[in-house]
Amino acid sequence: MPQNLLVAQSGGPTAVINSSLCGIVEEATQHGQVKGIYGAVNGILGVLHEDLVDLRQEDPSSIRSLRKTPSAALGSCRYKLSERDFNRLLDVLTAHGVGYFLCAGGNDSMDTAHKVYKMAAEKRLDLKVMGVPKTVDNDLPVTDHCPGYGSVARFNAIATRDSSLDTDAIYTSDTIKIIETMGRDTGWITASTSLAKETEDSGPHLIYLPERPFIEGKFLNDVKEVYDRLGRVVLAVCEGLKDENGRFVKASTKGIDTDKFGHAQLGGVGDYLVNLISEKLKIKARYDKAGTIQRVSMQCASQVDIDEAYRVGQVALLKALEGESDKMVTLIRKRSDPYVSDTGLVGLDKIALKTRSVPDEFINKDANFITKEFIDYATPIIGGPLPEYARLNKMRLERKLMPYT
Amino acid sequence: MPQNLLVAQSGGPTAVINSSLCGIVEEATQHGQVKGIYGAVNGILGVLHEDLVDLRQEDPSSIRSLRKTPSAALGSCRYKLSERDFNRLLDVLTAHGVGYFLCAGGNDSMDTAHKVYKMAAEKRLDLKVMGVPKTVDNDLPVTDHCPGYGSVARFNAIATRDSSLDTDAIYTSDTIKIIETMGRDTGWITASTSLAKETEDSGPHLIYLPERPFIEGKFLNDVKEVYDRLGRVVLAVCEGLKDENGRFVKASTKGIDTDKFGHAQLGGVGDYLVNLISEKLKIKARYDKAGTIQRVSMQCASQVDIDEAYRVGQVALLKALEGESDKMVTLIRKRSDPYVSDTGLVGLDKIALKTRSVPDEFINKDANFITKEFIDYATPIIGGPLPEYARLNKMRLERKLMPYT
User: Fold this and answer.
1) Is A97 on the interface with B (CB under 8 A)?
2) Helix (H, G, I), strand (E, B) or coil at B370
3) Cross-strand pairs, A138
4) Which of the listed CATH numbers 3.30.365.10, 3.40.50.300, 3.40.50.450, 3.90.20.10 matches domain A3-143+300-350?
5) Does A295 sit within 8 Å of B166, measured CB to CB?
6) Interchain pair A395, B53: CB under 8 A
């Protein structure tokens, strides 16, 4: 008997979470098994408050253009469900005849989805629950990478290259440039700035991930060494950098800045390091912190990412229709060059609340850059080479005068 | 008699200063009057140190692709010339048979160019000096706008729309978003974030320019008012905001952070306001500060800007060949819709060291947003509408349960 489908978008927005929504909805319209196609407004909060929309009423061209629309079109949330909330949730799903519940999100969302599945099973409800991976942080286990990451990585590769060119051009004035990227617990996003590097001497010159403790003295030595050699430094740091005691280098300690999952509000490492460098090395520095702009930039999105996000949505729906439940769709890398990927499935409990850090083999021994292994890993998923820029040969004219001193 | 041409790029990089270089070089190759086509490495510093390159040795395809290459391909600098430097400068120009000296830059650079002209005239040297306008700050007088501005404005329009969508989507968690833009003395760049606004309720909701004093109490009231009404606020601020006493709201006071022209290093207003809002209003906030990324983003460059930058370079060369000197090329708006512009000339002394602020008619009475007049002014130069995004109708399903409390 045909049942209704409910889709929810969860956690931080990305450039491609709407592409997953598009994949789900376009696939759903092809199957008689699916009656109503519903969306939850602001994720699980929309389910709790019965704030649901009818996606069959949308113009197919609007649905299609979700592929090139960043952020979360249905609205998202960060909300930790209470025991009582789960009961309400099942009441709403039952009241609206939902047989397929698809949730796009990260490890918090997969935990929620898993609990919904368990509770529905206890109550013997016929509910298929499927997870659609989504997180710019790229920190979900099992899957080769997460939709959303390829695009934030492409943004950071392009922005870091541009910002490095800016520093190169005017290095007689602004000598140290700090790029602060997102990344709460893992350095995947920060690592992607390495994809900007084109030559031995071009930026970024140093990269610091939260997988390694941030040691002030070592950092200052690293910076000084590059500065003495090149006269300028472009370095990338993660907003989630921690010191040797596991404390954030810079985070707000106010209760107000902690979200529903107890995560502290980060951001500000760049500003902190500008002051540190100014004070200790007496060198002028400035920082760029694209902040949330980096995770929703459709201008710099990866086509591979857009396509894969669509596919994981599509597959999640198809698998639910085949009777799968309590699973998340994964991406499996079949070949790197030319890049080919496939999808797989994994139990939601294998993802829920788990975090995958950047592995040791992707971080250099000095803990201040990444390895070639990371470049090989990340290059295919940012969707082709960066835009080509002119590079002048700069054939010097012969000097005719004495040096100017 | 054919003479040599020397081009210098000066001040902060932009997305389109290389397009001006392209216009100059491509035009110069068409004229027998021009013998050598030289570039100064790192602007005026390259002239002083006789670090010059032969641009006729570059592949024409490299020159062509300067049109889509951000930052300053020849290198730039911020350097204030001493009396002694001017003599050296003329020695170098003379030694290399330079008859045409073209300088792309802002008001500091036009001052330098004007002084070079005056000194050359005193010494009766046959030197044509022409200025090519370039500054993301858009603060040069006389010209309708400056090449570089259209692109930074387009970047900020796109980034602010993306960032606003991000806040809209997840406003149950991140409720106040601050966009910090560049802009030392004027609010032109900050004002461009207004081009992101699509509906009455979409961001940005508030915009603060340095043309008006920043008054803490009024700011907090403004923020609170929007927050109470919409449950979220997206606001844009200029890094150069000043208080009622004309002091920067946030700037480094260290000598090391002051450049050769005595300008203090700015940046950090976003961080400052996040703390202020958190402390005084107890509302969670975060900030995006694209920093130098905004001025060199070719992905978000304005085609109108790229074309106009090319044209002002081309015209500067042509006018120099016609015998003009001590002038800067200006842009004149002939029609807004469809947009048509022409070029004009102005004496370098009318530009040197002068700053054009955002005029009163572009700023609203409450000093917390811009007017329709600004939108009309800025829209044509960002090069067409922003990329189209999907907008769902979100037809609500009928509720079947009691409200959840």
Assistant:
1) no
2) strand
3) none
4) 3.40.50.450
5) yes
6) yes
CA distances from A204 to A79, A191, A239, A299, B229 (A): 37, 10, 16, 22, 43
A233-288, pLDDT tens digit by residue?
999 999 999 999 999 988 654 544 555 555 666 668 998 999 999 999 999 899 99
Q: Let me know if B137 is a catalytic residue.
A: yes
Sort A56 into a burial class: Cβ within 10 Å, 0-12 / 13-18 / 19+.
middle
E strands in B291-404: 327-336, 339-347
Please give the Cα distance from B266 to A132 (Å, whole number). 42
What is the CATH number assigned to the segment(s) B3-135+301-350? 3.40.50.450
Please write the tens of the pLDDT for every residue from A362-383.
999 999 999 999 999 999 999 9
Give the global pTM.
0.96
Quote ipTM for the complex: 0.95
- pLDDT tens digit sequence for A294-325: 999 999 999 999 999 999 999 999 999 999 99
Task: Note whether A173 contacts B77, CB cutoff 8 Å.
Answer: yes
**Per the CB < 8 Å rule, is B71 touching A388?**
no
Of A258, A387, A3, A316, whose CA–CA distance to A130 is shortest? A316
Nearest-CA distance A340 → chain B (Å): 27
Chain A residues closer than 8 Å to B39 by CB: 392, 394
What's the pLDDT tens digit per position in B232-289?
999 999 999 999 999 998 865 454 455 555 566 666 899 899 999 999 999 989 999 9
Q: Which two tokens stand for residue B363?
A: 């700023």
Q: Which of A11, A53, A291 is the closest to B396 by Cβ?
A: A53
| Whether domain B149-299+357-382 has CATH 3.30.360.10 | no
Q: What is the spatial distance between Cα B72 and Cα A116, in angstroms, rounded to a whole number?
A: 55
Tell me the DSSP string of B305-322: HHHHHHHHHHHHHHHHHT
Protein fold of A149-297+357-382:
Rossmann fold (3.40.50)
Closest in A91, A268, A287 to B401, CB measured: A91
Q: What angle do CA B264, B70, A274 make, to 5 degrees?
A: 35
Tokens of B165: 């969508």
Give the count of beta carbons closer than 10 Å to the beta carbon of residue A212.
19
Structure tokens that stand for B26 in this block: 């491509």
Could you give the count of Cα atoms lying within 13 Å of B279 in the half-sphere of its Cβ? 9
Q: Which one, of B88, B317, B9, lies nearest residue A403 by Cα?
A: B88
Q: How far apart are CA B132 and CA B117, in angstroms?
A: 14
The answer to whether A404 and A397 have CB atoms below 8 angstroms apart is no
* Per-residue model confidence as pLDDT tens digits over B202-225: 999 999 999 999 999 999 999 999
Q: Is B342 helix (H, G, I), strand (E, B) or coil?
A: strand
